[in-house]
Amino acid sequence: MRTQVGIIGAGPSGLLLSQWLHLHGIESVILENRTREYCENRIRAGVLEHDVADLLVHLGAGERMKREGLVHSGIYLRFRGRDHRIDFANLTGGKTITVYSQHDIVKDLIAARLQAGGKLFFEVQDVSVHGLDSSQPSIRYTRNGRPEQLECDFIAGCDGFHGVSRPSIPAGVLKTHENVYPYAWLGILAQVAPSCDELVYASHERGFALLSMRTPQISRLYLQCAPDEDLNAWSDERIWKELQLRCATHGDWTLKEGPVLQKGITAMRSFLVEPMQYGRLFLLGDAAHIVPPTGAKGLNLAAADVHVLVRALEAFYKHGRQDLLARYSEVCLRRIWKAQRFSWWMTTTLHRSPEGDFVNQIHLADLDYVTSSRAASTALAENYVGLPYD
Predict the structure, then answer these.
(1) Residue ranges of the chain whose pLDDT lies below 50
(2) What are the chain's domains?
(3) What are phi and psi of 161, to 5 degrees?
(4) 194 is annotated as an active-site residue
(5) Given 22, 183, 293, 363, which residue is catalytic?
(6) Is-catalytic flag, 384?
(7) How many angstroms separate the CA atoms of 199 and 189, rounded?
(8) Which of 12, 22, 50, 72 is catalytic?
(9) Which of 181, 201, 278, 328 is catalytic?
(10) 201 an active-site residue?
(11) Is the model's pTM score more than 0.90?
């Protein structure tokens, strides 16, 4: 089988890439080792930057998001028992964010690809890439027990941190950057209406807490904890008590409690490799970079990678240009490092640091400055709703 762009992975980046290429008349095939059901039900966060929400609509996969997504025009920073709202819309010329779960985005994109006649092959095994430094790379895999080969012009590695794409690049080519944080998140999904109309980031002497949501009936809540935390030590009662303590305010506000549907521990780290390309292989999304979830940048960075690669491939196929393909890593990494900086800042500033009281007081002073300076509030808002694409 032959196509123009072979895509490994049916996550958000692979599906966005395939659908966007389709609109430009560029053929692609998606290979995924998981089942369709797994991909469509893999629970991940979903806070969409303004331009990413618009992109889903442009790609013909945003109708359900427009009906069910929760549009927010700001967030709350809660510290010293008081709320300080960052008004995104006012500070960024009307830009907003949309809360819409990643697995719903995947469902919508899969449906859009199938409706357009796209080729998606789930449950493929033994995936390997070949001829990356040639003009005709290929992907070998097993489907339905039979070995097959996909010949293509380019390969897009959208298969996440544990996929085969990044390890297929020869040793010595990639430079790795990583930072492991000294804390983690204990997260729960609760069957209760959100306690606030927008996300609340709470800095407290007992540790960070985040009040988020998935739907008008389902809340997503997080507590800072140790990376080696024993989840069994956290009963539902203890979790709600700790959330009440860390989210307490001097105002008239109540944390709503309800049945806990899920709970788990999420590690916190930053990771990226450079370059994000080798020969005809291009890395996108988690295959190339990971950010802590505090700044809500993971999925949005993947969409930005797709934006850069689509523009480069369009220039190649329509005008024979190769300069944008050659600059793929350079352009992507400018945005990624800015997102890494923002995610690092949000994470370190809001979490209780093990370094001691001096550092924690500095973080509180930072929050005080951000919420009392329009310029500083604007910088936070611009980063959160999404920086302009290069």
Answers:
(1) none
(2) 5-72+98-177+269-356 (3.50.50.60)
(3) -60, -35
(4) no
(5) 293
(6) yes
(7) 15
(8) 72
(9) 201
(10) yes
(11) yes
